[in-house]
Design brief:
Layout (H helix, E strand, L loop, with lengths): L35 H30 L2 H28 L2 H24 L5 H30 L4 H29 L2 H20 L19 H11 L4 H17 L6 H7 L4 H25 L3 H15 L1 H5 L3 H28 L6 H12 L1 H16 L1 H22 L8
Helix pairs in contact: 1-2, 1-4, 1-5, 1-6, 2-4, 2-7, 2-14, 2-15, 3-4, 3-6, 4-5, 4-14, 5-6, 5-10, 5-13, 7-14, 8-11, 8-14, 8-15, 8-16, 9-10, 10-13, 11-13, 11-16, 13-14, 15-16
C-alpha cells in the first residue's frame, strides 16, 4: 500500500511499496510504487537534457568544421565513459547511497552547462571545448545508468521491474525526441547559448525532484561477515561473475553489436540532414522521429509485455534494416520516416535491455550487472569513431549502409552461437 505522506527527504526509506498483485500488470502499474514517479520524472528531465546537450555538441561541431569525423567525435566523447567507467559506476551503485550519488551528478552538471552557455553567448565557444564537456555528460549518463536505474529496482521490486524499465526506455526515447526538438528550435530562434541555459533550467528542476526522494532501503546495505570488500574487489567481482552467467553474456553481446553498428548513427544525422538542406529545426525533427518511434515501441512493450528476449533480439535486427532508408534516399520525408520506423524497432530492444540484464543476475550483483551493461553500451563511442572515419573516406550514406548491414549479420551470428537470450521471457 502506498503511503500518502512521504518520509523526510534524505531519510532512509523503509523499503519498496510495490503494487499489490491485484492492482494489475498494465503499462503504468509500476508508477503506483512509492517514490518511483519522482525518480522516473527526474530521469526523464535528465534524458531530455542529455540528448539536447548531445544535439548541441554535434550541431556546433558540424557548423564550425563541416567534418563528419569531428561531428562523430562528439558522440564518441559523450558515450566513451560508459566503456571505461561503467563497471566502476556499478560498484559505486552497490556500495554508496544511490540517491546522494544521483543528486551530486545532477548538481555538478549545472555549472558546467552554464559555462558552455556563457561561452556561446560571448562567441567564444570553440570546437575543442565541446569534447571535454561531452565527457562530463557521459559520466553523468554512467551515473544515471548504473545508479539511478538500480535504485528503481529497490523501489518497484522484481515483479514490476520489466514494466518500470520499459517506462525508463520510454522516457529516454522521449528525451531524445524532446531534446532534439528543443535544441533545434531554440538554436534556430535564439541561438546556441540560450539552448544551453534551457538545459540548465531542466537540471535545476530534476535536482528539486530528486531532493524529495528518500534513500530506499537495500538488502545489500549491511556489511557481510568479515567486513565489506574493498572497492577494487567489488569491481573485480563483476568481471569474475560474468563467465558463470551465460544469459548475461548473450544479452551483452547483442548490445555490443547494436550500439557499435546501429545506434552510432545519431551524431551523423547532422551530416545527413545537410544533404537535403534541412534547417536546425528540421534536423531536430529527424532526431526526434527516432525518439518518437522508440517511445511508441517502448510503450507497446510496457503495455503488452511480449517475450522479452525475442523482442530484444528481433527489434535490434529490424532497426538495422529500417534505418537504411535514411542513408539511401535523399528525400526529407523518407529520412524522417526511416528514422521513425528504426526508432520503433529500437524501442523493443531498448525497453527490454535493462530488465533482462537486471533479472539475469543476483540481488547483490545488480549494480555491477548494470555496470557491465553500460560497458557493453560503451561499444557505442568506438562505433561512432569508426563510423566517422569511414564516413570521412566514403561518405556518410555509404558508411551507414555498411555499418548496419554488418551489424545485422553480426547479431544473427552471435545469437546463433549464444541463443540464451531468446529463452528469457
Amino acid at each position: 500500500m502506498t503511503t500518502t505522506e512521504p518520509p523526510r527527504a534524505g531519510a532512509a526509506d523503509p523499503g519498496p511499496s510495490i503494487p499489490a498483485p491485484g492492482q494489475g500488470r498494465g503499462a503504468f502499474a509500476s508508477l503506483r510504487a512509492r517514490h518511483f514517479p519522482k525518480v522516473w520524472a527526474a530521469g526523464w528531465i535528465w534524458n531530455i537534457g542529455r540528448w539536447a546537450m548531445g544535439f548541441l555538441g554535434a550541431y556546433v561541431a558540424n557548423d564550425l568544421t563541416d567534418s563528419p569525423r569531428l561531428v562523430q567525435l562528439t558522440g564518441t566523447f559523450m558515450w566513451g565513459p560508459l566503456l571505461f567507467a561503467g563497471l566502476i559506476g556499478g560498484a559505486v551503485s552497490d556500495r554508496f547511497d544511490r540517491r546522494r550519488v544521483v543528486l551530486a551528478q545532477l548538481t555538478l552538471m549545472i555549472p558546467l552547462t552554464s559555462l558552455m552557455g556563457v561561452l556561446a553567448l560571448r562567441d567564444q565557444l570553440r570546437v575543442w571545448m565541446i569534447y571535454p564537456f561531452m565527457v562530463a555528460v557521459g559520466i553523468g549518463w554512467v551515473v544515471d545508468m548504473t545508479v539511478r536505474r538500480a535504485m528503481i529496482y529497490d523501489l518497484v521490486g522484481a515483479e514490476h521491474v520489466t514494466g518500470a524499465m520499459a517506462l525508463e526506455m520510454l522516457s529516454s526515447a522521449a528525451g531524445l525526441a524532446m531534446g532534439a526538438l528543443i535544441g533545434g528550435a531554440v538554436i534556430q530562434t535564439l541561438g546556441v547559448g540560450p539552448a544551453y541555459f534551457v538545459v540548465v533550467g531542466g537540471l535545476v528542476v530534476a535536482v528539486a525532484i530528486m531532493w524529495r526522494v528518500p534513500s530506499p532501503a537495500r538488502t545489500t546495505e549491511a556489511a557481510p561477515a568479515g567486513g565489506r570488500p574493498s572497492f577494487l574487489s567489488t569491481v573485480a567481482d563483476g568481471f569474475r561473475a560474468l563467465p558463470a552467467n551465460p544469459a548475461l553474456v548473450s544479452i551483452l553481446g547483442v548490445t555490443v553489436f547494436v550500439d557499435f553498428f546501429h545506434f552510432s548513427f545519431t551524431p551523423i544525422i547532422q551530416v545527413i540532414a545537410k544533404r537535403v538542406d534541412a534547417t536546425p529545426s528540421m534536423t531536430g525533427l529527424i532526431a526526434a522521429a527516432t525518439g518518437l518511434g522508440m517511445m511508441i515501441g517502448s510503450y507497446w512493450v510496457a503495455a503488452r509485455r511480449p517475450h522479452a528476449g525475442k523482442a530484444y533480439v528481433f527489434g535490434s535486427m529490424a532497426a538495422c534494416l529500417l534505418i537504411l532508408g535514411l542513408a539511401t534516399v535523399a528525400s526529407y520525408p523518407v529520412i524522417v520516416a526511416s528514422a521513425f520506423t528504426a526508432g520503433l524497432a529500437m524501442g523493443l530492444f531498448g525497453s527490454t535491455q535493462t530488465a533482462l540484464a537486471i533479472t539475469s543476475t543476483s540481488d547483490e550483483m545488480r549494480g555491477r550487472a548494470m555496470g557491465l551493461l553500460s560497458m557493453a553500451i560503451g561499444a557505442l563511442p568506438v562505433g561512432m569513431y569508426a563510423l566517422g572515419e569511414l564516413a570521412q573516406e566514403v561518405g556518410a550514406p555509404t558508411a551507414l549502409v555498411v555499418f548496419n548491414l554488418t551489424g545485422l549479420a553480426g547479431i544473427a551470428i552471435w545469437v546463433k552461437l549464444r541463443p540464451e537470450v531468446l529463452s528469457i521471457r
